[in-house]
Write a structure and sequence with these properties.
The protein has helices at 2-15, 17-21, 23-45, 47-55, 60-82, 100-110, 119-123, 125-130, 138-166, 171-188, 194-207, 213-232, 240-251, 261-275, 277-292, 301-304, 307-326, 337-342, 347-368, 377-401, 424-428, 430-448, 450-466, 468-490. The chain has 24 helices and no strands. Helix 9 crosses helix 11 (194-207) and helix 19 packs antiparallel against helix 20 (377-401). 73% of the residues lie in helices and 0% in strands. The protein is globular.
């Protein structure tokens, strides 16, 4: 039966409209993945030499045992943002004489083909075969690597369970990212000795191979939990009650309807973002990443001395949602774009709703990042200056750039590794959005100094906010000239 499932999935992939239309892109992505795996293999072959030089007297296996915990943490977060859930068209099979448990087992076993599950084979297996046999027995060496692989597979099944939960409970994303940040902070201040825990466990594993039962039991438990959850939720009706949470969330914004047509359109857009898979994943990625982005740079003294880098970070912290959402500001509604053109909706009101939907979350993000003042008042000043710049310059710029994005977007598909609806325009617009503030600051600083440069940038942002109504009118006029070309691009061909 599993071979029939596999055959059906292969046919589904190669017969899909998206695969045939983006064959060149898929080939390029395949080549890039192959190059990455070859680079990892090269590192794996020379990992013993690298660790020996880096260890300064510490044996490579001891150093690797201590630091491998960071590999698991890094790949765990990467899996969360990049790894797709194993899916297949289940509904057409539910009325057939196929055991539901077989469908569930197949869905979960398919996740073993994830790119991340091959990383240990290229990175750690060469080290296991080349270096470890020189110092340990063959059995100990094999068990040591198998333990690493079992932990990696445990991460695979755990992240699938978390992502299945997060599709109906978005708060799981915030909890996960918050826990990750807390762990990193505790480790940074040596309150949670991750290296000691990791080094102790893998050290004991080399002495007593029986310790492999822990990763084995963990992997089997998470696999069973995924199987149980999948088996209990094969029918869509099982998820109806859970999905009502999204409906309740959108009701909190019902007061927007009292603001006239603009408020009603904002409310409809919020409902669209909360009810569709791709837009929901975009929200779950952009909001936490924007909030926590500063923690990558601000705690590091070497980064704090690079003012240009701080400007880049300040622009993204408050503007993360604005930039990610605004790139597809019209494409989110591409499937019903013809209906919008034919509706009794004033284009200016439509664009005004889009503008406010970009600027309100941007302002809220700034408020939530005020605690960054802990790293210095200059951080708060920069965040405020480039908040105003985002509201007055970047937001109107995205309204203009919307007329150039004419690729249809399917919202029922996931966000991760999905380039459907993405065009060269999306990459080009990033340059002025993120690089523009830095270049403007560099130019103004060379002419008038740092403080004057920041004041001028603040003034430009304030001017943009004061004349935002006129900027919206200009963006509307530009859209009117291109609306039929945009509609043609959004139609299925």
């Amino acid at each position: 039966m599993k071979y029939q499932f596999t055959s059906l999935q292969i046919k589904r992939i190669f017969r899909s409209h998206f695969w045939q239309k983006s064959l060149a892109l898929n080939i390029i992505i395949g080549i890039l993945i192959l190059m990455l795996l070859l680079e990892l293999l090269f590192v794996g072959i020379y990992l013993g030499v690298i660790l020996e030089k880096a260890g300064k007297g510490i044996s490579p296996e001891v150093l690797l045992n201590k630091s491998i915990i960071y590999y698991f943490l890094a790949t765990f977060l990467m899996r969360f943002f990049l790894q797709e859930l194993p899916t297949m068209e289940v509904t057409p099979m539910l009325h057939l004489p196929i055991e539901k448990s077989r469908i569930s087992y197949y869905l979960n076993l398919r996740s073993l083909l994830s790119f991340f599950n091959f990383l240990p084979l290229f990175l750690f297996l060469p080290f296991t075969l080349i270096y470890m046999p020189q110092h340990f027995s063959a059995l100990t060496t094999i068990i040591w690597f198998v333990a690493i692989y079992f932990i990696d597979l445990s991460s695979n099944f755990l992240i699938i369970r978390i992502k299945r939960k997060s599709t109906v409970t978005p708060s799981v994303v915030l909890v996960l990212l918050s826990l990750s940040v807390i762990v990193v902070i505790l480790d940074h201040y040596h309150l949670l000795p991750l290296q000691k825990i990791s080094g102790w466990y893998f050290g004991e594993l080399l002495k007593h191979p029986i310790w492999i039962v822990i990763p084995l039991a963990t992997m089997l438990f998470f696999f069973w939990e995924n199987h149980r959850y999948t088996l209990n939720n094969l029918y869509l009706e099982n998820l109806v009650k859970k999905k009502k949470r999204t409906e309740k969330l959108s009701r909190h914004f019902a007061g927007l309807e009292n603001l006239g047509k603009t408020g009603s359109m904002i409310l409809n857009e919020i409902r669209l973002l909360l009810r569709n898979k791709r837009s929901k994943q975009m929200l779950m990625m952009s909001l936490p990443i924007s909030l926590l982005y500063g923690l990558i740079f601000f705690p590091q003294k070497e980064y704090m001395s690079h003012f240009y880098l701080l400007i880049f970070v300040a622009t993204f912290i408050s503007g993360g949602f604005l930039i990610i959402y605004g790139q597809y500001i019209l494409a989110w509604e591409s499937s019903q774009f013809d209906f919008i053109l034919a509706s009794n909706i004033k284009t200016e009101e439509y664009f005004r709703a889009k503008y406010y939907l970009m600027t309100i979350p941007t302002t809220l993000l700034f408020i939530l990042t005020i605690p960054y003042v802990y790293f210095g008042t200059i951080i708060l000043e920069l965040n405020f200056v480039f908040l105003i710049y985002n509201l007055g310059v970047n937001a109107p710029m995205l309204l203009f750039s919307a007329s150039f994005n004419r690729k249809r977007m399917e919202l029922d598909r996931g966000q991760m590794m999905n380039y459907q609806g993405v065009g060269i325009n999306n990459f080009i617009i990033i340059l002025p959005l993120m690089g523009g503030p830095v270049l403007l600051y560099m130019l103004l600083k060379s002419l008038a100094g740092q403080n004057i440069a920041l004041l001028i940038i603040l003034g430009i942002g304030l001017l943009g906010m004061l004349i935002h109504q006129q900027l919206i009118k200009w963006a509307t006029s530009f859209f009117q000239k291109n609306r039929y070309k945009i509609a043609e691009g959004y139609r299925i061909k």
